C-alpha cells in the first residue's frame, strides 16, 4: 500500500495529519502496538521537521508485508551539518517555533531511535530527503 501526503511549511495546524492517518491504517492491519508506535513517532517527527524548517514537502509511505518505507522530501534551507543535527538538543528552530512547543532538537534523534534504517541527504539552499525503514518483524533490524 502506498500513501502520499503534502506538507506545508509553517502550517502547524496540520502537523500530525500524515502520522495520524498512517496510525489508523496500521491499526486496521492489526500490527503490533510497539511497531505502530515506532512508525508513528518517526513519521510524526519527520512531519514536524518539514513544518518547522522547510517551505513545503512531501511524504511517501510504502507499506509492504515486511516493512514500512517512508521518504520525506522537502524544499527548504537544507541541513548544513547532518552530524550536528543528529545530536540531541541541537536545533535551528526559530524562537516562534520553540514558543509553540516544537524545536527542542529531538526530531532526528527520535527518528533514528525508532528506525531500523535511516538515511539523510541534504543540500543547503535546496532541501532535505529523509528515508526511514522500519521492519514489521523487528528481528530484521540491520543497524
* Cα shape: globular
CATH architecture: 2-Layer Sandwich
Count the domains.
1
Profile the largest sheet: 5 strands, antiparallel
* CATH level 1 class label: Alpha Beta
Describe this entry's structure for a reader.
- By secondary structure, the protein is of the alpha+beta class.
- It has a single domain (2-140), classed as Heat Shock Protein 90, CATH 3.30.565.10.
- 35% of the residues lie in helices and 28% in strands.
- The chain contains 5 helices and 5 strands.
- It has a 5-stranded antiparallel β-sheet, with helices on one face.
- Strand 4 and strand 5 (127-135) form a beta hairpin.
- It is globular, with a radius of gyration of 14 Å.
Give a brief outline of the structure:
This protein is an alpha+beta fold and 143 residues long. The chain is built from 5 helices and 5 strands, in the order βααββαααββ.
What labels describe this entry?
alpha+beta, 143 residues, 5-stranded antiparallel β-sheet, Heat Shock Protein 90
List the helices and strands and how they pair.
Blueprint: E1 2-8, H1 17-28, H2 33-53, E2 56-63, E3 67-75, H3 82-85, H4 95-99, H5 107-114, E4 117-123, E5 127-135
Antiparallel strand pairs: 1-2, 2-3, 3-5, 4-5
Helix pairs in contact: 1-2, 2-5
Amino acid at each position: 500500500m502506498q500513501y502520499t501526503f503534502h506538507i506545508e511549511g509553517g502550517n502547524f495546524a496540520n502537523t500530525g495529519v500524515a502520522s495520524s492517518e498512517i496510525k489508523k491504517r496500521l491499526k486496521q492491519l492489526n500490527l503490533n502496538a510497539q511497531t505502530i508506535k515506532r512508525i508513528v513517532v518517526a513519521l510524526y517527527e519527520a512531519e514536524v521537521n518539514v513544518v518547522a524548517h522547510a517551505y513545503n514537502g512531501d511524504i511517501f509511505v510504502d507499506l509492504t508485508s515486511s516493512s514500512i518505507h517512508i521518504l520525506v522530501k522537502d524544499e527548504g534551507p537544507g541541513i548544513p551539518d547532518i552530524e550536528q543535527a543528529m545530536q540531541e538538543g541541537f536545533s535551528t528552530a526559530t524562537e516562534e517555533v520553540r514558543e509553540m512547543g516544537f524545536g527542542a532538537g529531538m526530531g532526528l534523534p527520535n527518528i533514528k531511535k525508532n528506525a531500523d534504517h535511516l538515511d539523510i541527504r541534504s543540500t543547503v539552499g535546496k532541501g532535505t530527503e529523509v528515508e526511514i525503514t522500519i521492519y514489521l518483524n523487528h528481528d530484521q533490524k540491520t543497524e
